[in-house]
Amino acid sequence: MIKKITTTALAALAFIALTGCGEEKAPEAVTYKYSTVEVYEKSCIKCHGKFGEGNPAKKTPALNDRTAGEMAQDLYDVKNGGTSGQSGGTDHEIMEHNMQKLVDKGYDYDINAMAEFLSYLVKNK
Questions:
Q1: Which of 3.30.565.10, 1.10.3720.10, 1.10.760.10, 2.40.50.100 is the CATH number of 34-123?
Q2: What is the structure's pLDDT at 112?
Q3: DSSP string covering 43-100, please?
Q4: In angstroms, rounded to a whole number, what is the distance separating the alpha carbons of residues 30 and 37?
Q5: How far lies 116's CA from each of 2, 6, 16, 70, 79, in Å?
Q6: How remote is the C-alpha of 5 from its chain's centroid?
Q7: Is the model more confident about 22 or about 36?
Q8: Cα(73)–Cα(98) distance, rounded to whole angstroms?
Q9: What pLDDT digit, counting tens, does each position of 32-87 carry?
């Protein structure tokens, strides 16, 4: 009986050791079809302008009046339906709809990379 319990306990410990004790795996790297610059030039520039100045005629907001951190939050809201906890997403409803169409066409992007690019774009116009 003791030998059976010991064997079972050892088997359980071996299983836990071999499975990594629930260690989290590193997230897989995401590969995008286009670079951040290509995404902006092919899908954003026509509404938001060459330097992120926006276009009142198209009712598109300027992107050059935010810090990289604020822009990252806005981009997160657009891509995730306002789920950052900071915004209800209502300011981004039209772009949330358009974003899905852009992603379907391959114009997806890393949020932080796009925010940094927009910050760079504004500083270097």
A1: 1.10.760.10
A2: 95
A3: IIHHHH-TTS--BGGGTBPPSTTS-HHHHHHHHHHHHHTS-SSS--SGGGHHHHHHHH
A4: 17
A5: 63, 57, 42, 11, 16
A6: 49
A7: 36
A8: 17
A9: 999 999 999 999 999 999 999 999 898 888 988 889 999 999 899 888 876 555 54
Helix (H) or strand (E) holding 28: none
* 62 close to 54: Cβ distance less than 8 angstroms: yes
Closest Cα partner for 74 from 86, 57, 59, 56? Answer: 86
Task: Share the mean pLDDT of the chain.
Answer: 79
